[in-house]
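Problem 3 from the worked examples.
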Amino acid sequence: MDTGPRELPAAAAGNPACRGGACAAPDGESTVKVGFNVLNTIVGSGIVCLPYALHNAGFAAGLALLVATAAMSQFSLYALVATGKRTGTDHFSSVTLAALGRPGYHLLNWSMVVDMVGTVVLYLMILGDLATELGNRYLPFAVGRASVVLGVSAVVVLPLLFFRNTGPLARYSVVSVLCLPCILLAVVVRAPHYAGRVGVEFPVFGPRILPAMGVIAFTFSSCHAAFPNYTGLRDRSTAAWVRATAFATTGATAVSLAFAVAGYLAFGSKAQPNILENFPDSDAAINVARLLFALSLVLTVPMGFYPIRDTVTEMLKIHPERHGADAVWEAACTVVLFAVCAVAAALITDLGLAYELIGTLSSSVVNFLLPALVFLWAGTDVSLARLASLCRRAGADGGERRSLLRASGDGDCAAVRLRDVGLWALAWVVAAFGVWVMVLGTYNVAR
């Protein structure tokens, strides 16, 4: 397979604004706005489950896993776009097909559907729980959870699902992300008032570390939104994408650590899959946090839903841009898919099991295993065979002072090649992590 550098189709061949892999799209968004979009994608419903995951993983192991998973998530976002540039593709399915062929393509599509449907269902489950609790506290009549989920889904969320991509939602993502400090502040301030009622221990490892790894993997799920956000950039360069995703990953890590530690210190082993459920409904500050989190989820659901629609319309060959199909088919697909998600969210109530199962079964594949394999097969020139060849060549040189990876006398070339080897090695680590969580994590959740 030819893996030489080529431009993304989105760069529009012949467009003078596109140079060297960067394309200035007048209708695109700034790096900061796209960074907020990605941050909004990462910091969704997963943060409320982190104290629960911290208990199951163990305090020390859980914190280490959270930071390591964030770093691997950042690599996966980079790997997909970098490989897309080399293979001339601008869609997760397309780049996987180019790199891994039909087996990888089908594995991705089915894993993506399971992962993203599960993600949207989780968002709607939590949204329903929050809205129901607030409604029963402040409304003069009782409301049922199922009717709240279906009503909010149809009236509030569905109208946000008919844009062409996530670009028009960037300003709303800023609003959603700005809710997070308020939610975090409420939890951090109010949690100490409930501390001491449960003994809190700080073990290195917890009782269910593998399912907890699935929850943490789910929390940093963002690869489904890599290309929709990348193509929404005004400056479509790798450097701009790295800046946007680094901002998003750093922010998500800080928020996640604060939320996880504050919740665990207050409730320890009694932490619920939704930490806000540990607080009584009479706590006014937490009720404000519940309201803001519900608003944030309303604005986050579209970030999880658009990739589902893109994947399904690609599988059915009814995508308006890539297959020239009538837009009415895409709209019909939007309604049917979202109706399935809303009904599932109304019926399913075991939030902890849903987090663990989706995280281990599909998030591990979509966000770690496949992006790493795509990069290894088509995103880099480094391979084990090439490294072995260079080792033999270096040995034949009789110990001359020469970098193993230097193809010429250019020192910059040697530095770039060394960086490539580092990325290649990291890709193998990320792939191994994805396999580990998928196989052993799913087994531990299911048994």
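Problem 4, a separate protein:
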Amino acid sequence: MPAPWRARYCATPWWARVTLIWAASRIVTTALVLLLANVQGPNAWTSASPGYADFANMWDGRWYNIVAVVGYPSTLPFTADGHVGESAWAFMPGYPAIVRLLMVLVGQPWAPMAVLVSVAFSLGAALLFYRLMRRVLDSSTALFSVVLFCVAPLSPLLQFGYAESMYLFLLTLALLLLLQRRYALLFPVITVMALTRPSGLAFALALGLHTVYRAVTRRQDPFPAADRVLAASVTGYSLLAGLAWPAIAWIGTGSITAYTDTELAWRAPYIGYQELIPFTAWFQSGVWWLGMPLGIVAVIVLILLFGAALFLPPVKRLGVDLRLWLASYALYLLAVFFPQSSTFRLLMPMFPLLGALAPPRNTGYRIALVLAGILGQWGWLLLCWGVDGADWTPP
């Protein structure tokens, strides 16, 4: 880089660099989305060749729209054979509430306002992600981590009518506060986060492990009594926050299992209606996709590989707290989630792992990662977002 350009680059504030990266990535992603929208045929959500806002609000975007405009049903819907069916109770109110507020203030319909809210939160998430990575990486590597975040295969969701953009913003803020040990500020963040996407239980586990680790290592890293009380308190609060929405669904419908029954309705097309038995869904999915015994073996190997990956040098460089979050969220998914095409989206909260891919400064390596991310976006849009007939690959 020529000296004048280097000096100008060094004088540019970090937030301007991150914003430029974010803006460039959104241009690329928007071009890909418009290209696919142009060839999209008529479907359950849009007419043929829909405009951007309509195309960005397909699939679960319609459920969030229902929550924002109609709210939640007081009685659960049932299928013809007597099982609880799909309903708005599977979708938490944080994101649609903000979009609804903007709709009222601006006087615009759901679709453009949902996109606007998601885009705004995506910029906030990118800015916070840089600050988070700067806690564990140098500035150049942290900045390239932001590049990877912005061009990741599922980054189109950051500008769709989904809650992921808002949730990643809140999660990044919560992780940053955790690394800064500003426990008191976690209470309001956890409150909103737990009402945006299911997260309270996983974050409570991460907080609990963090508290135990700090207690064990207090000789090397002092853990004052005030911090111990706050850390334990926010851990318990996160646990309660994780149970709040199922409790609200119970109160709203009169059924203690309203939330879990509603969630189970989405896996019924694969394995039928079954009870929620923790730590069985991945094995059920493995058998559904690969049969016996290969499905069981594949899940066991996947668990072992992920556990080993947490101890690889690039991942260890992220620090103990981020690895505790990764382990906690992975355990949460293993306990309750049934893997199918939505798995890619459910893995988005593991975005700190991008920091483990960023350190090598080889130009060819970095260009290859960026191109792989962009190609991955196109592949995910084709596989999971675009609708082709009776599509069974929801995003």
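Solution to problem 4. Residues 14-385 form one domain. The mean pLDDT is 95.
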